[in-house]
Write a structure and sequence with these properties.
SH3 type barrels, 2 domains, five-stranded antiparallel β-sheet, globular
Length: 178
């Protein structure tokens, strides 16, 4: 009897998801010259970070959905790509998507070092003195990304330095962060 119930649930799941259509439609691109806005009034997409040391990523927007991943890294940056009531559909730097409760997210801006071993520089110049090296996957606090600059000021391990935007995930190419 259990396999029949599982099959029935599997057939019912797409119908339950159909009720989420309007909320998920917020993922669509905004009209030209207009930023997308979620139900919270905040822009979509946007970057946030994990508020807690352990956060569940669920298959859908509610506790009735299964937990697909458990994140154990406070301040890890995530991209909010949709909203449904108190739930946020997020994407991590590896492309994994799922739902988290808004209380588990913070507006504090962080970034993840990507690519190869990266050198933080004293100034926003590739010839500037090295400050520290950061490995791939290291979470950095995002201090500033000046408008029109390819560089962002970050803090890694208590040391402040500059990385180029393409060396981190957690900031948009043309975004100014103060």
């Amino acid at each position: 009897m259990a396999p029949a119930m599982t099959l029935a649930f599997a057939l019912l799941l797409p119908l339950l998801g159909a009720g989420l259509g309007p909320a998920l439609a917020q993922e669509a691109a905004p009209a030209p010259g207009q930023a997308a806005q979620g139900a919270s009034g905040l822009p979509l997409p946007r970057y946030v970070s994990l508020r807690a040391d352990e956060v569940n990523m669920r298959a859908g927007p509610g506790v009735q959905y299964p937990v697909n991943w458990v994140y154990k890294r406070r301040l890890l940056p995530l991209e909010v790509i949709a909203e449904y009531h108190a739930w946020r559909k997020v994407r991590d730097y590896k492309g994994t998507e799922g739902w988290m409760h808004k209380n588990m997210l913070s507006g504090r801006r962080t970034a993840v070092v990507t690519g190869d071993l990266r050198t933080l520089r004293e100034d926003p110049d590739s010839r500037a003195r090295p400050v520290i090296r950061a490995e791939v996957g290291v979470v950095a606090e995002l201090r500033a990304c000046p408008d029109g600059s390819e560089w962002c000021e970050v803090i890694v391990g208590g040391r402040t330095g500059w990385l180029r935007r393409f060396e981190i995930w957690g900031v948009y190419p043309e975004e100014a962060v103060d």
